[in-house]
Amino acid sequence: MRTIVVDPRHPDPEVLRPAAETVLAGGLVAFPTETVYGLGARAFDPVAAGRIFEAKGRPADDPLIVHVRPHWDLSRVFAKVTPAMERLIADHWPGPLTIVAEKHPDIPDVVTAGRDTVAVRAPSHPVAAMLLDLVGEPVAAPSANRFSYVSPTDAAHVATDLGAVIDVLVDGGPTPVGIESTIVAVEGDTLVLLRPGSIDLPEVETGEDAPASAAPGRLTVHYSPRTPTRALSAGGRLTDPGPGTLIAYRDTVAPPDDWNVVVLGSRDDLDSVARRLYAVLRAVDETGTSEIVVELTGVPGLGAAIDDRIVRAAGGRVV
Ligand code: TXA
Ligand code: MG
């Protein structure tokens, strides 16, 4: 693996160019987006996109997100761009919103796991945007972690998980948002939320009633540490004997004396909580603690997206 270090705000195109050339040659390149690091390959090359599944250990039935620039001809990826899609794009791209809609026939089946819909987003991170400009065509990229492990928010996380199996790691430092994009499916005039994220769409129906297969990534066990993990209701008290590690907030009530306590941040600053969540989960996982308990924020909006990730990390176990 070759590591290319770039300035996250003002990347130099000449420094990034070898990463783009690797993508165009069919290789695997991990790169920062505003949410988490992505593991990218040419979306229109089924062999290259297939290597992503192998590298991650990802099941072939879990489709990838295709990354584009907002001004590209989107009729190359979607079967059609409807007014509802145009509104979402105008309001939220570039940014952490993924749109699922009917796919263009040229999108390989391996990318969509055989579905007739495709997930597409235009990242706002300057490094991701410049890499796409240099590649000049859509890049398929899931989060750059081993399947079902915690998503990577720093280059070191990617190197630990996938260093042995990728060609290039573009190191642009920690990612600013820290949790994965909001995913919305456009079904006619109806928007269905498939995954909550930092973009809160009030006009959207929640996907709770959607069949579980609608968003395969919504498997209950996902984003999980190796250490047994539970979620604690917001404001709840942990009465179990320690020592394990409680990940909590500045205003957490009476953390038990015999537990290690790691403060994630303040519920008044959820941006910072989202940014730190995965790095803290990974760091605590590596301490060898016997058990992890993560308190939920109990706050709507971004808090609900954070809580979604915490419940998944806990495999659905909430105390
Ligand atoms: O922020 C993000 O979205 C990051 C960065 C790298 O862009 N990517 C990301 O990808 O989180 P991944 O693969 O870890 O999660 C993508 C989710 C998966 O849960 C997948 O099942 C869902 O998107 N997805 C992809 N295509 C879909 C489709 N056609 N219909 C429903 N869900 C889809
Ligand atoms: Mg993922």
Structure notes:
With 319 residues, the chain is an alpha/beta fold. It is 26% helix and 21% strand. It is built from eight helices and 15 strands. It has an eleven-stranded mixed sheet, sandwiched between helices. It has a four-stranded parallel sheet with strand order 12-15-13-14, covered by helices on one side. Threonylcarbamoyladenylate is lined by residues 33, 35-36, 38, 62-65, 96, 98, 100, 112, 115, 117-119, 121, 141-143, 180-181, 183, 194, 214-217.
Radius of gyration: 19 Å
- Low-confidence stretches are none
Helix content: 25-40%
Order of helices and strands: EHEEHEHEHEHEHEEEEEEEHEH
How would you summarize what this structure contains?
With 319 residues, this protein is α/β, with parallel strands linked by helices. 26% of the residues lie in helices and 21% in strands. The protein has eight helices and 15 strands.
Write the layout of secondary structure elements.
Elements: E1 2-5, H1 13-24, E2 29-32, E3 37-42, H2 46-56, E4 65-67, H3 83-92, E5 97-102, H4 109-112, E6 117-121, H5 126-135, E7 139-140, H6 155-162, E8 168-171, E9 182-187, E10 190-195, E11 205-206, E12 229-232, E13 245-249, E14 260-265, H7 270-285, E15 292-295, H8 302-313
Parallel strand pairs: 1-8, 2-8, 4-6, 5-9, 10-11, 12-15, 13-14, 13-15
Antiparallel strand pairs: 2-3, 3-7, 4-7, 5-6, 9-10
The structure holds threonylcarbamoyladenylate and magnesium ion.
Residues 142-143, 151 line the site of magnesium ion (MG).
